[in-house]
Every structure is written in C-alpha cells, then in structure tokens.
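Continuing the batch. This is chain 6 of the set; chains 1 through 5 are on the previous pages. Same settings as before, nothing changed between runs. Recording input and output for traceability.
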Amino acid sequence: MKYLLLIAVVVLVLWAMRRASLPPPPPPPPRRPEPPQLEPMVRCSHCGVHLPRSEALMNPDGHAYCCAAHRSAGPRPV
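Output for chain 6:
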C-alpha cells in the first residue's frame, strides 16, 4: 500500500513539474466589433435639420420634427 501511495506522489510531482514548464496558451484573437446598424434619417418639417428616425417626433400626418416646439409650430411653408 505504501508503494502505491509513493507512486501516486511521484506521478503527481512529475505532472506538476511538466505543467509548470509548458508555455501558457496563446490569447484568443480579438473579436471584430459589429458594424453599427444603419438607421433611416428624416428631415425636420420646420427647420430642415436631419436626424435619425428613432429620435424624431412624428405627427399623425407623417411629418417629422426635431423637437416639441417645432412640432407645435407645424411645417414651415416653402
């Protein structure tokens, strides 16, 4: 029984020494960032500034505005 324990200790020491001498694994390659999602742009019906559709204030009639003041002022006549 004591020889079995001695063999296990020797194997464990040899395994630990071998593991310590191996170089660390290379780091994983960097991930490419995802390209930004494009979003449709709309033009403010009052002042003409372009802004993303998600940031625009839309009227029920389909006009887009950049702020509440321009929405309440309505479209500027051309």
